[in-house]
Every structure is written in structure tokens, then in C-alpha cells.
Specification:
The structure is a single chain. A hairpin with a 2-residue loop joins strand 12 and strand 13. Helix 2 packs antiparallel against helix 3. The chain has 4 domains: 96 residues, Orthogonal Bundle (Helix Hairpins); 134 residues, Heat shock protein DnaJ, cysteine-rich domain (Chaperone, DNAj Protein, Chain A); 72 residues, HSP40/DNAj peptide-binding domain; 27 residues. By secondary structure, the chain is α+β, with helices and mostly antiparallel strands. The strands form 7 sheets. The chain has a 4-stranded mixed sheet. A 3-stranded mixed sheet has the order 1-11-10. It contains 9 helices and 17 strands. One of its GO terms (cellular component) is cytoplasm. This is Chaperone protein DnaJ. Belongs to the DnaJ family.
Length: 374
């Protein structure tokens, strides 16, 4: 028998919330209490089961705006649970948990029929391409291990072509319900794999799956401007669906190989170019590698090591756009490591004529030395 109305605890107190609680916070509070006292977490604990029932009853009332309004005005008298002798009658626990928890405890399908066909699985493929291919795009051909429809049964899974029959084990729902105490949970039916149907005369070639192992060569269109981790979706190129269902998709993840000269930041390209001491001092025109081939770049007279020059429009093309980034060229002045006697003589004469201490940077350095050591 149900407890008398006067003995019931306040529904808001049961869920640990205030009367002004929002619908979303009410749902969160019920979830917390329900997880704490759920029978699966407290097997054989009658007190936990009672608290779980109490919380479910409280949420059933307070989550319904009309019933909540009556409860706020009249208390338990406005929502007489258990008056017919059931103690928990009127509470659709499966509906509650279907809304709050989804499939956490196996779902609550309640006899809903499932489709006899299902969409095929999506496939993933990692594709390695060069720096240039990522910049300008490419159309490589790849071999995908991709099951195909059985040509014997045309994907139906049936030897005779007969339509699948309703599964006798689950009655076509695709689920089997199990009861633990008062609480019922559902699991996919093992006999039909959750489809709700079985094939009485399965195809010998595919064993009723409607699919057979296969490999397929596919041309993948990679657009210019992709970068590491870019995913390209090929709709309908995944696994075929079960028993004639629609196919899944193929997702190609791009992996870009490192380049020996170039580095990339979004659509900008960076590289370093060595120049000789005389080229930097006197100025010169040098060949600079770019994604489009070599181009001439002017090195002004007196260029210092580390100077960065910009080549506009020589970077990475923007994805799905006509725009291009720029290339940034950092000049590195090379110091010769081995000198001939003639070269050494000329450099010594140069140092003598120019005077080491007259160089602006050198002068500053020696001035600091004099200040420190007198």
C-alpha cells in the first residue's frame, strides 16, 4: 500500500531544489539523485530503491508544468499518486529515463519498431601528400578496403530474395526488455542484431549480411590549400548499408609531408636563403625558390643578416578561393670558413682601410668595453 499523503516528503526536498528551480536545473537534480540511488548501483538495497522511486515520482510531477502548478497550490493532494493501490502507478519510468538518460541504461524503446535496413558505416582513410600537392590540389587514386553489396542476393541477404521476417524473439522491436525489481531496461536483440527482422533463408555467399569483402580504387579530389588534418568527405563512398540500406560516407584525412625548404603558417610560406658577404654588402639579384619555381629577388646594398623580404602572391592558395598568401624570405649571410691566401690578403686590406672600430656596431661594443674597464 502507498504511504498516506501526509507522510510523503516534499517533492522539492526530495530532489534537493528550491521551488523557483528552472526546468533544466530540475532535470539535472533528478539525474544526480537517480544515478545515486539507481538499482543497478545498489543491488539488493531496498532503501535505495525506495528513494529512487520517490525521486522518480517527484520528477514526474514537477517536470509537468500543469501538475507542478497544482502541486504548488495543493501539495500532494493535487497529485494523488498511488490511490489505486499501486504505490507507483501513473509514473512512466521508461519515458522519464528515455528523456533524461537516453541510452545510459540501455534505452527505453518500449516496443518501438526498428527499421529492417540500416545505414552503412562511415570509413576513414589517412592520405599522405606532398607540400606542393597540398598547396595546389591533386587527384590521387587510393585503394580502399570497402565491402560491397553481395552480387548474389543484391544486398538483401536472402538466398531466395524473400523479404525478412519479423523477429520472433523480440516481436520486431529490435529490443529485449529485462526487469530488475520494478525497473525495466532494454538491450538489442541478439537474434536479429537489433534490426527487428530475421532472414529465414540467408544467402550462402554473404551469410545473410548482404555484403562481401572487397577493395575499390577511388580517385580523391583534394582541393588546393588543404593543410595537415583537413578532412575531405566523399558522400556515399563508405560501407554499404545492411540489407539494402543506404551507404555510409568516406572521410579522407590529409597528412602533408614536410618540405626541405619551405615551412607553412596558414597560407603564408617561409624559407631561408643564404647570400654571400659581398652580395649583402654590394647588393645583388639572386634566385629564390618558390612554389612556382625560381624567381629573381633584389638584395639591396648593405643588407643585414636576418632581413626578411616578402614575395607577394607566392604563398599557399586559399582553400576554395582565388586568393594566395605571400612568401617570406629570410636572408642569412654566409661567412666563409676557408680562405685562400689571396682572399685573406684582400679582407685584411679591407679591414685596414675601413677600420674595425669605425663600424657602427663595433664602435658601440668597444665604447662599452672602455666604460667598464677604463
Amino acid at each position: 500500500m502507498a504511504a498516506a499523503t501526509g507522510q510523503k516528503r516534499d517533492y522539492y526536498e526530495v530532489l534537493g531544489v528550491q521551488k523557483t528551480v528552472s526546468a533544466q536545473d530540475l532535470k539535472s537534480a533528478f539525474r544526480k539523485v537517480a544515478l545515486q540511488y539507481h538499482p543497478d548501483r545498489n543491488p539488493g538495497n531496498a532503501e535505495a530503491e525506495d528513494k529512487f522511486k520517490e525521486a522518480s515520482e517527484a520528477y514526474e510531477v514537477l517536470s509537468d508544468p500543469e501538475r507542478r502548478q497544482k502541486y504548488d497550490r495543493f501539495g500532494h493532494a493535487g497529485n494523488p499518486f498511488g490511490d489505486a493501490g499501486g504505490g507507483f502507478q501513473g509514473v512512466n519510468i521508461n519515458d522519464i529515463f528515455g528523456e533524461i538518460f537516453g541510452d545510459i541504461f540501455g534505452g527505453a524503446g518500449g516496443g518501438r519498431g526498428r527499421r529492417q535496413t540500416s545505414r552503412g558505416a562511415d570509413l576513414r582513410y589517412n592520405l599522405e601528400i606532398s607540400f606542393e600537392e597540398a598547396a595546389f590540389g591533386c587527384r590521387p587514386k587510393v585503394t580502399i578496403p570497402r565491402p560491397k553489396k553481395c552480387d548474389t542476393c543484391t544486398g538483401s541477404g536472402s538466398k531466395s530474395g524473400a523479404a525478412p521476417r519479423q523477429c520472433a524473439a523480440c516481436g520486431g522491436s529490435g529490443e529485449l526488455r529485462y526487469t530488475q525489481g520494478f525497473f525495466a531496461v532494454s538491450r538489442p536483440c541478439a537474434d536479429c542484431g537489433g534490426t527487428g527482422a530475421t532472414i529465414p533463408d540467408p544467402c550462402a555467399k554473404c551469410r545473410g549480411s548482404g555484403k562481401i569483402p572487397s577493395e575499390e580504387v577511388i580517385e580523391v579530389a583534394i582541393p588546393g590549400g588543404v593543410d595537415n588534418g583537413t578532412r575531405v568527405r566523399l558522400g556515399g563512398m563508405g560501407e554499404p548499408g545492411d540489407r539494402g540500406g543506404p551507404p555510409g560516407d568516406l572521410y579522407v584525412t590529409v597528412i602533408v609531408r614536410e618540405h626541405p625548404l619551405f615551412q607553412r603558417e596558414e597560407y603564408e610560406v617561409f624559407c631561408e636563403v643564404p647570400v654571400s658577404f659581398t652580395q649583402a654588402a654590394l647588393g645583388a639579384k639572386i634566385d629564390v625558390p618558390t612554389l612556382d619555381g625560381k624567381v629573381k629577388m633584389t638584395i639591396p646594398q648593405g643588407t643585414q643578416s636576418g632581413k626578411v623580404f616578402r614575395l607577394r602572391g607566392k604563398g599557399i592558395p586559399h582553400l576554395h578561393s582565388q586568393q594566395r598568401g605571400d612568401q617570406h624570405v629570410r636572408v642569412i649571410i654566409e661567412t666563409p670558413t676557408e680562405l685562400s691566401s689571396k682572399q685573406r690578403e684582400l679582407l685584411e686590406r679591407f679591414a685596414e682601410v675601413s677600420g674595425e672600430e669605425t663600424h657602427p656596431q663595433s664602435k658601440t661594443f668597444f665604447d662599452k668595453v672602455k666604460e667598464l674597464f677604463g
